[in-house]
Amino acid sequence: MPKMRAVQISRPGGPFELVEREIPQPGPGQVRIKVQACGICHSDALVKEGHWPGLQYPRVPGHEIVGIVDAVGAGVTQWTTGQRVGVGWHGGHCGGCDACRSGNFFGCTVALQITGISFDGGYADYLVAPAIAVAKVPDDLSPVEAAPLMCAGITTYNALRHSGARAGDLVAILGIGGLGHLGVQYAVKMGFKTVAIARGSDKEPLAKSLGAWRYLDSQAQDPAAELQKLGGARAILATVTQGDAMSAVQGGLGINGTLMVIGAAQSMQISPLVLINGRRSVKGWYSGTAIDSQDTMAFSVLSGVRSMNEVFPLEKAAEAYARMESGKARFRVVLTTGQ
Ligand SMILES: [Zn+2]
Ligand SMILES: [Zn+2]
């Protein structure tokens, strides 16, 4: 049997292990993808540290995958070998339960699958994925450019376009990191009056170069008060992982404003009066399905939005993951297989 490289975690808290495995065969309704690039996401810590209930080990993480369709299983009609595709966080759903029949595929109660958690992900030369989880990648994007759009990109793009904000509205992006540097670009290109908020002043030149209209240093200024001076935000996209930073901006929401939460943070505090007076809301958003990934990539090609990436070869996955964890990467870390 032909072999491939894979990087797996064998137990919660265990190290990344570079192993040789048999190349998997696609079953009915599945495709096999020859991986070219896979982004490293903060959520890969769920596999590394064992924070996902019921996760089966060993597991290959990775849900920002771009590669070439290499084989298709029985019954797959929408994909053929040679197509360039991507797979993101949403790894499949049943299509028949009440949630799916309502179009709420993320809420599937029968067969919700998460890439790199329910089945082996993209830290490998090949993976097998459900055909329903696969997105077409445009020719205009290289594998390294496209990979981070499969989670960081889709999450920020999709949350912004469902935030209720319209062209010309004041929109704030809280946190300028892996998610936030994409969030600023998408917000600008969607026509929002975009305010970037981060701790310290060192990210101001970058935020401005990405098109931000204003920059707020949350250590030197009260971001909520400053947003109110600018008229109040129609939406604030919270990409940070600190609950207190999210709590601190709620007062910057304008009338009918929405705090869109996409960073997995510790608990935050919300004032009922802030919500009631001004009919404001707090809403969570998860990434999206394969067609949302396609929309994200198409918009990125159209508007020139790109992720800034640091690239490592697959065999240096442990080093690459540590770089992501350090918070020092500018801004996403991407593994490449050389294929
Ligand atoms: Zn992710
Ligand atoms: Zn379902």
What does this structure look like?
The protein is an alpha/beta fold and 339 residues long. The protein folds into two domains: 3-151 and 288-336, Quinone Oxidoreductase, Chain A, domain 1; 154-284, Rossmann fold (3-Layer(aba) Sandwich), CATH 3.40.50.720. 24% of the residues lie in helices and 28% in strands. It contains eleven helices and 17 strands. It has helices at residues 45-49, 98-101, 143-146, 152-161, 180-189, 204-209, 223-229, 243-249, 272-276, 290-303, 317-326, and strands at 3-9, 16-22, 30-40, 65-72, 84-87, 90-92, 113-114, 126-130, 134-136, 170-174, 193-198, 214-217, 233-238, 253-261, 281-284, 309-313, 332-336. The strands form four sheets. Strands 3, 4, 5, 8, 9, 16 and 17 form a seven-stranded mixed β-sheet that branches. Strands 12-11-10-13-14-15 form a six-stranded parallel β-sheet, sandwiched between helices. Helix 4 packs across helix 5 and helix 4 (152-161) crosses helix 10 (290-303). The radius of gyration is 20 Å and the shape is globular. The two termini are 19 Å apart. The model has no long low-confidence stretch (mean pLDDT 97). Bound molecules: zinc ion (2 copies). One zinc ion binds at residues 93-94, 96-97, 99-100, 108-110.
